[in-house]
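## retry 2 of 3
previous attempt timed out at serialization; input unchanged, resubmitting
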Amino acid sequence: MENKEVSVTLNALAHPANVAWQSVNGTQVVAERIDLLQADRHRSIWVWRMFGCGPEGQSIIAKRCRIGDARRERDIYQHILPWLPLLPISFHGYVEDSQEQGRAWVFMEDIGSDEPYSAEDPAQQRLVAHWLGILHVSGGQIPEKDRRLLRDRGPDHFRPYLDHSIATIPSVRGNNTLSEAHRVLLNEILHQCKHVDAHWPELVQYCEQMPKGMVHGDFKEEHVFWGTSPHGRILRMIDWNEAGWGTPSLDLFSFLGHRSAPDPNTYVLSVREAWPVVNQEELYRMAVVGELFRVLGSIRWEIDKLQYPWVTRPMAKIGIYRDWLAQVIDLAPWSGERTLLQRRRATKSLMAK
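## retry succeeded, writing output
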């Protein structure tokens, strides 16, 4: 992903973000300056900060993306977050792109001036763990008609990633730019994927036994900011496009052995009343499931790149994912290992490398 901040020098009225913003608010108020914050062409996502054009003259964030992603994010801001006992991000509008079919804009509060997350601070680690616990257990307050807007974030969502990799690896092995060592590596990761496939029913059974809740889906340090209130710090979380409903495994992945991980004791205390089954052992076990979901998505993404001649970078990543998946398989719910705490605390996740 390419991330950068650059001042935009186009005429303010002509900038696509201003054109879209005017169609949302119906006025001629335009941004004093527009900075590009993110450009991800693979995912068709562009994000700008627009200065001086918010409802009270503040800056706002404009995000242009695929229309399905924009609608999903709009629904979460309008119909999901207001039900949660957390400080939401103000939503300022949605409009389909008049210049390109299949794209749309969402406008939201800019919290980029808030204090970023300092992951080495134990006090912040406790606050983040408490916030995640509140998020996960409070999803029951969302009315059923609104909860249906959330995508599944359990095994059914990630099963197609596994199926795609198993089906695609045999065909991409024929790419004549691959070395023999590359093909050996692909055979190894295909064998791992088939191992996961053989144990998938056990994974599904485990997830069915675990509590379900609201999941952010893309919890990471750069999405966490701190605001202030008379009662102290308030956590602000951005980028809700991957949010959904299911076991909280995806968000709990961040607990796995990282020095900067949220505090597990605080999380367990935060969910204990609603989810008494979740002790530290089950917290780590659910986190391993989240790690498995993430590595399956990562493998699928790189495998697709092997249909092209430029294989060096994707194969380097696949080598990392082979080692990562081996570690996950060793700790998966079907592994027979019943005490993960000491092993996970002693080993930092390969994802951090």
